[in-house]
Amino acid sequence: MIKADLHNHTRHSHAADSVAAMAEAAQAKGLEFFGLSEHSPRPDGYLYPADYQEKLLATYGQYIDEVKSLRAAKQNNFRVLLGLEVDFMPDEEAFARRAVSGHDFDYVIGGLHFQGNWGFDYAQADWDKLDETRRRGCYVRYYRDLAALCRSGVAQIIAHPDLIKLFSADSFKRWLDTKEAEEVLAETFGLMKELDLIMEVSSAGLRKPCREIYPGPRIMELAAGLGLKICLSSDAHSTAQIAYAFDELESYCKSFGFGGSWIVEGGRQVALPFDKNHC
Ligand SMILES: [Zn+2]
Ligand SMILES: [Zn+2]
User: Fold this and answer.
1) Contact at 8 Å (CB) between 63 and 12?
2) What residues are neighbours of ligand 2 (ion), with CB under 5 Å?
3) CA gap 263, 5 in Å, rounded
4) From ligand 1's centre to the CA of 121, what distance in Å?
5) Beta-bridge mates of residue 230
6) pLDDT range class, residue 75, cuts 50, 70, 90
7) What tens digit of pLDDT does each residue of 19-37 get?
8) Which among 102, 158, 183, 190 is least buried, having the fewest CB atoms inside 10 angstroms?
9) 3-class secondary structure, 63
10) Ligand 2 center to 278 CA (angstroms)
11) What percent of the chain shows pLDDT beyond 90?
């Protein structure tokens, strides 16, 4: 059974529920480790057409305090962890570095959501305007940016490592069959291995138009072959989504040969085998 869900949001950004309600629901679902990983504030000029930045900036300190107080009240079989999801932009590395310093985070998840100032995970309509060649350009850029995120050292966990497929899953699958994809992916995921970063496997993709776990089978095979460490998450934006489809997520990971997942507590990687009794 999966015992940890490390990637979750609250109403401090664009999710539905409070920190306390999320933690309570996670405990009720039988998780042993529950990580809150609210979005980091973004640099000026990076906005979605409808955005939560103003709200987040107003209560960001409160988010940190609320999670810290739950973390301090730790129980034997349930721990709350303080995480952060950094929206990484290669041109704004100094900003990301400042965002992750100054607070006592258990871990930082690094995720890509922007190319330049375009939030690429916002609207299907944006992708409908792009032909196959331009989409492929976005995929290549995504993995180059992901490599920059790995190299930056700001994150210990790499979020949803094929989020770029969200609105163009068929084109993305065709691209995966190309020599270009093979080379770009080998470089980026090789770097993840070299730097001992943890790759997130997220059930959130099942709820999105791509209808597929992040990352898809091709990248899972590559990750398994490299011996990458993985962590599991739901990227929940409400109490109902915590540990979303975790049974499916566990069999998916096992089918590629993964024997367990990892968490990061106080900056230290900890292994959680899927079947403790059999390992
Ligand atoms: Zn994300
Ligand atoms: Zn997220």
Assistant:
1) yes
2) 85, 235
3) 9
4) 9
5) 199
6) confident
7) 999 999 999 999 999 999 9
8) 102
9) helix
10) 32
11) 84
